[in-house]
Specification:
5-stranded antiparallel β-sheet, single chain, 4-stranded antiparallel β-sheet, 2 domains
Length: 251
């Protein structure tokens, strides 16, 4: 039966449209009932996101998302890398500068599969590397933990996140992951992210650290965002994967 439905979807445009519309409608209803956010259905899309102070119970900050518009649905397929860099630098150079931990997140289809592009803001074209290629060794498991939570939350990360150059698990990225799933959570500077790499090592990072995806895996880098009062800290630093401050727990 499953194979029959799959064949109908491939051969019948009308049937495929009905199935896709029905699936998205169910997703919207579930999202409304659980309070979680969902991604736009049509690609490409482009958001700038960041954090603002919050009075919500269990959260020191709220997630702010602003959607930018594209003028073509084939943006990923036909535009040159230099043009893409220019466009992203213009938008990303100003996006979210009034927020804590600003990012831009873009999703598009390269023809083979959907991929995400994630960078911290503001952007500088001279520092903007760009690739559609995935890392050779992406993490096996990513979990969110917090002292106020009895159980961890596993992040469901699509393969499209592990693109070379992506900067993941900054505080705004972490809160976005939390709000795009349905489990209740606490969020402040005391959270930890546990990452199991391809060698089954477990690396634990906090709110002062993010990872950059590389050709062979990832590097973690320091960027303190919060001070001890939970406010924004403007001092930044970079740390390669040989630093001693972040604990590495061997399995």
């Amino acid at each position: 039966m499953k194979d029959t439905i799959s064949n109908w979807k491939k051969s019948n445009d009308s049937f495929r449209w009905v199935m896709d519309e029905s699936a998205f409608a169910i997703q919207q209803i579930y999202s409304f009932m659980t309070g979680q956010r969902i991604e736009p259905r049509h690609l490409p899309w482009f958001y700038s996101i960041g954090l603002e102070p919050s009075k919500l119970l269990g959260q020191t900050h709220s997630l702010i998302e602003y959607r930018h518009s594209f003028f073509t649905q084939d943006w990923f397929k036909y535009l040159s890398e230099d043009w893409i860099k220019d466009y992203l630098t213009v938008i990303g150079g100003k996006a979210g500068v009034q927020w804590v931990s600003p990012l831009f997140i873009m999703k598009g289809n390269t023809g083979e599969r959907p991929i995400y592009i994630v960078r911290r803001c503001p952007l500088d074209k001279s520092d903007l590397s760009f690739s559609f290629l995935s890392t050779k060794n992406h993490p096996i498991l990513v979990e969110y933990t917090h002292p106020e939570m009895e159980e961890s939350i596993e992040f469901d990360m699509e393969d499209g996140w592990w693109i070379i150059g992506n900067e993941l698990f900054s505080p705004s990225f972490v809160l976005r992951c939390l709000e795009y799933q349905s489990t209740s959570f606490y969020f402040d500077e005391d959270y930890k992210i546990r990452i199991m790499d391809h060698n089954f090592n477990i690396i634990e990072i906090g709110s002062d650290t993010y990872i950059e995806i590389t050709k062979d895996g990832f590097e973690w880098k320091k960027e303190p965002i919060f001070d001890y009062d939970g406010d924004m800290d403007t001092d930044t630093d970079t740390c390669e994967d040989t630093c001693d401050e972040t604990p590495l727990i061997r399995s």
